[in-house]
Amino acid sequence: MSRIRRYLLLFISIVLLGVSGCGADTAGGQTANGPEDKGQEKTEPEAESSESAVADASEMTDVIDVTEPGMTPVSAGELKNGTYSVKVDSSSSMFQIDACELTVADGSMMADLAMGGTGYLYVYPGSAEEAAGAEESEKIPFEEDAGGVHHFTIPVEALDAGVSCAAFSKRKEKWYDRTLLFRADSLPTEAFKGNRLQTAENLGLSDGTYTVEVSVEGGSGRAGIESPAELTVKEGVCTARITWSSPNYDYMIVGEERLEPVNTDGNSTFEIPVSGFDGPVPVKADTTAMSKPHEIDYILTFDSSTILPGDGSPAGKLTGKPLDWKAMKPDGKMKLSYAEQFSIDYYGRDCELITIRDIGKYLLLSEGTAEPSSLPSDITVIRKPLKKVYLASSSAADFWRELNVLPSVRMVSTKEEDWSLPEMQTALKQGKTLYVGHYNAPDYELLLSEGCDLAIENTMIFHKPEVKEKIEELKIPVIVERSSYEPHPFGRLEWIKLYGALTGKEEEADRFFDDQLALAEKSLKSKAGGETVVFFYLNVNGAAVVRKSGDYVNSMIRMAGGEPVVFDTSEEDESALSTMKLQMEEFYSRAKDADILIYNSTIAGDMQKLSQLTEKSPLFQDFKAVKNKNVWCTEQDMFQQTTATCGIISELKKIISRTADESSLKYFHRVQ
Question: What is the pTM of this model?
Fold first, then answer.
């Protein structure tokens, strides 16, 4: 009797479980993100092993291939920092994503998935098998918002590439394999650092009729398209007339649009929208040549370098086909957080306009890109890649070192013994870099014979304007560097992004700058004591040279918790020098009560003893900082190590807060 009773109870349990499973899938709003019901389940175990916690193929709904032929993965480095709405395709109809926000920051991407249901407890960035064996801390739980919607936040390696994401079913208590596709084509154009595809706008194509070479990939490889194809541009929208090598195509699908043939006789011809040039354009074409109609995926590529107007004259962007500058418009702008002295506008992938305040404009062109027609005379063209740079601004060298592009610095105006960067000393010693003379009298013949492709000067060149004019007469573009005019020290540091643009190292420059900001935020959480500080040196005439109140050095002192003594009281001219001269008597009256004196050795030479200071002027004997032996001196390498901004501020903070371990300081030393 007991055996019969056990069998009866087991049978009832199985029936009830089956009913419950069917009900869960058909209940309103529970299909999405609910349990998988393909196949049968015998029992609900109380505890499952890692292996049994993984659903097999028989327990899953139909798996959809979300990737498309010709897709090229898009990394975080190709996108600008920001948060964007992005479309996500899922390999399972049971894992429905209603909305997704993609955040790009620090070279990585995170996605906030707003789910269409509440059937999953966890997700895991990997396979179901990996998830089953993972630590609890590695599993990502849902977060419920005020509206009851479940959210999962997961890392995204790349857009337009299948991303593995295991999901743990609340009812089934099993991990299911999923593949997600975050679609790059759903992002706005401004999300990309450069256009992924060339457009009529950034190619400078006016309305009219053209021809363009087109290639096709996909299918069996036997199908072809007549090339060149007719291209029509109207109000910036491009349409191509595509003729296949077969009469058997009865429709095409481009994006979401189904298109019918425009002819009834001969090979199938369609007029299709062209979303862009020089990149993959996925389409579908339905053929009736098989036993039954069949849609085939193809990739079309329209080559912008082959675009010709109807009259056969050159047009388009690439070699030999110049654009009209008057018709070109920027499609993006470099994001800058602190820098005010330069800006960069993007004109597609191969053209960037650099503007340096009060200096000029520079059009940076990639190799092979033709110079636009109608280019204003006040815009200087610079061509990448830069291989033989003349660096007259020694403070800029540290940016090139940080970006690992010092080998392209062929010539300098600073002697080997005057460099504090070991890499520059070594390059000069080995002859990889050449000394071409003082900035105000460089060896022009050497610049010319070496094939100099860019000269980078600092603002001292305006004391010798004829030197800049002579270099430009040699057809060598000249950039005048103004990073020292940035009022914020992080603005000066952000100039690494300009050098990243010049050298094709924009991603590395962005990453370095972001890392430095994070470091500064960590080291400057607490403020120092607010002691007054004077940063100065004495020139050969005995006058004191101090920084103006808005100068970046004084900003560094403020960031370190100090209070710089202000010597200028009138409103400053933005183009004026960042320093000012004071006669010793006036300097004495304003600086004698300062808590700390910092002597600038970069200009005036090193100072080791207080007697060296009092010998220059007996008035220093009455200075509070001298009496308290709170006088410091910069090391010679402080201003050549431009990328050390955060380290310098950190040491200033220690000096101002009187916590400095003098033996560990790198950029300052106490004057004994």
Answer: 0.49
